[in-house]
Design goal:
mainly beta
Length: 150
């Protein structure tokens, strides 16, 4: 079974809040993108294949996705977070990307605030890849499973 190798989620309590950071071995840095109240999947021309949504907390959900560009020649992993709370929610996330030959890469997005009633996505690097890929993800220590192939 594919696993996000050596991913450790660490929680530190600061002023009553838990700050979570992700520290995987040999992972590259991913990047957060805030979407506000715009659904990142339906607003994109890319093809997204996502595992089901998992609860991170009350009114906060996340899912791991494999994403293929509209042209079909490139792919990336993503972790989508939806915060339905009326306040900011901090999330650290990570994902990898696999094809039939093995792991293509692993990316981590350090803890970031997802705005109230909004979407944010942690993206891995865009890679040239014509074959099918899938992604395994984690957010705040919650295993998000494996995305369908894209």
């Amino acid at each position: 079974m594919k696993k996000l190798a050596a991913l450790a989620m660490t929680g530190v309590i600061v002023g009553g809040s838990v700050l979570v950071t992700a520290t995987p071995a040999a992972a590259a840095t991913g990047s957060w993108r805030a979407y506000g109240n715009t659904n990142p999947i339906t607003s994109s021309s890319s093809t997204w294949r996502c595992a089901g949504t998992k609860a991170l907390a009350t009114d906060v959900g996340a899912q791991v996705c494999a994403v293929r560009s509209a042209s079909g020649g490139s792919v990336q992993g993503a972790v989508i977070v939806r915060n339905n709370r009326s306040s900011l929610y901090s999330v650290a996330a990570a994902m990898d990307l696999y094809n039939s030959s093995g792991k293509l890469g692993e990316w981590v997005c350090s803890s970031s605030g997802v705005g109230a009633n909004s979407w944010s996505v942690c993206f891995g690097q865009t890679l040239s890849q014509s074959g099918s890929v899938d992604s395994v993800g984690i957010a705040n220590g919650v295993n998000l499973g494996i995305s369908p192939k894209v």
